[in-house]
Amino acid sequence: MDLGIHYASFTHPAWETRLTERLDATVRVADEGGISLVTVMDHYFQMIDFGGPFEPMLEGYTTLGYLAARTENVHLGLLVTGVTYRHPGLLAKVVSTLDVLSGGRAWLGIGAAWYDREHAGLGVPFPPLAERFERLEETIRIAEQMWSDDDGPFEGAHYRLAETICLPRPVRGRVPLMIGGQGERKTLRLVAQHADACNLFTGEGVPGVAHKPGRAAPALRRARA
């Protein structure tokens, strides 16, 4: 069994002066103790369940770059990148850079985004849900193309790239992909088609998570067909 740590809150005692110290110490213990994956959130405002926007929140990929320099073994990723936060070509380049500089330890966690308050607060467009899923699928395809031998154009409904050049390439040829969400018609179909892992969560506890693949079986079969 591989274990991971999700670092979801930066609201430590005396965080105003000790935030970096506490983050650094926690992740270095994880690195030395055999933890497989450390993730932080990709939010600009803290979520309401953890205290809301007036609690501290670090930008995700800057944080991972810092942690890559402070660790040697643990894999690093965001749980999960909102597809609306960064242009997909730039996102693939950012994640590739993290992978190269960490010696092949990056993960790409990605989802359709949901936190409308931080979008409105910082002026980030927040399309309707159906469009966000369309953009999610195109973003995944763009990342896969940028990490392949195909450096030609990409033509999608929402994104058009003239060249998909990404050098240096990820250390492992590609970056493992985690898709966040649990929708049985769209999200798990994308998992079946593209992902190495998914982030399942439900108010029904372990039984609810365990039943997700079964309830999603028709979508998974269509995706594999």
Report on this model:
The chain has 225 residues and is an alpha/beta fold. Helix content is 42%, strand content 13%. The chain has eight helices and nine strands. The protein has a four-stranded parallel sheet, covered by helices on one side. Strand 2, helix 2 (60-70) and strand 3 form a beta-alpha-beta unit. The longest helix has 18 residues, at 15-32. The mean pLDDT is 90.
What is the percent of helical residues? 40-55%
Q: Give the spatial strand order of the biggest sheet.
A: 4-5-8-9
- The helix-and-strand class reads alpha/beta
In round numbers, the mean pLDDT is 90
Give the overall shape, derived from the CA principal axes.
Answer: globular
Major sheet summary line: 4 strands, parallel
SSE topology sketch:
Blueprint: E1 4-7, H1 15-32, E2 37-40, H2 60-70, E3 75-78, E4 81-82, H3 88-101, E5 108-111, H4 116-122, H5 129-146, E6 154-155, E7 160-161, E8 177-180, H6 187-194, E9 197-199, H7 205-215, H8 217-224
Parallel strand pairs: 1-2, 2-3, 4-5, 5-8, 8-9
Antiparallel strand pairs: 6-7
Helix pairs in contact: 2-3, 3-5, 6-8
Summarize the structure.
The protein has helices spanning 15-32, 60-70, 88-101, 116-122, 129-146, 187-194, 205-215, 217-224, and strands at 4-7, 37-40, 75-78, 81-82, 108-111, 154-155, 160-161, 177-180, 197-199.
